[in-house]
UniProtKB/TrEMBL annotation:
It comes from the Bacteria. InterPro entries: Dabb, Dimeric_a/b-barrel. SUPFAM superfamilies: Dimeric alpha+beta barrel (SSF54909). This is Dabb family protein. It comes from Corallococcus carmarthensis. Residues 2-93 form the Stress-response A/B barrel domain.
Length: 133
């Protein structure tokens, strides 16, 4: 099982209506057939950290992760969501003992970015981006 956890906040000036549309879009992404479980909502961490929302999905294995990356809902959600994000922190977790797993996931992610320059540019344009795992 892989866990992908995002903590984020929207850019200053993003309207409540835009936030609602973006949250709805990523909630649809979280309902992809490749996702085993998900939570999308408020971030309950320390407000000093500057995050207001969180997105967490559980994905069963590499095959499901590939389907998640390739799901048109994922891309469509990100096209609405990413331009509005001012701060994003990502952490990935797993219970899989394969020592090469991190590299396999990073390679899959790099392949997605190389194959979709528009998506990669949106991710790179986030002012405060931190990716871990």
């Amino acid at each position: 099982m892989f866990i992908n956890l995002l903590r984020f906040r929207f850019k200053d000036g993003v309207s409540e209506a835009e936030k609602a549309r973006a949250l709805e879009a990523i909630s649809l992404t979280a309902k992809s057939e490749a996702v085993s479980f998900s939570v999308v909502g408020r971030d309950l961490g320390n407000p000093v950290d500057g995050f207001t929302h969180a997105y967490c999905v559980g994905i069963a294995d590499l095959s499901a992760l590939r389907r998640y990356f390739d799901d048109p809902l994922h891309r469509a959600g990100d096209l609405l969501f990413l331009p509005l994000v001012g701060r994003l922190w990502r952490m990935a977790l797993t219970d899989d003992a394969d020592p090469a797993l991190g590299g396999k996931i990073q390679a899959m992610h790099a392949e997605k970015m190389a194959g979709d320059p528009e998506w990669a540019a949106l991710l790179a344009a986030i002012p405060d981006l931190r990716l871990q795992g």
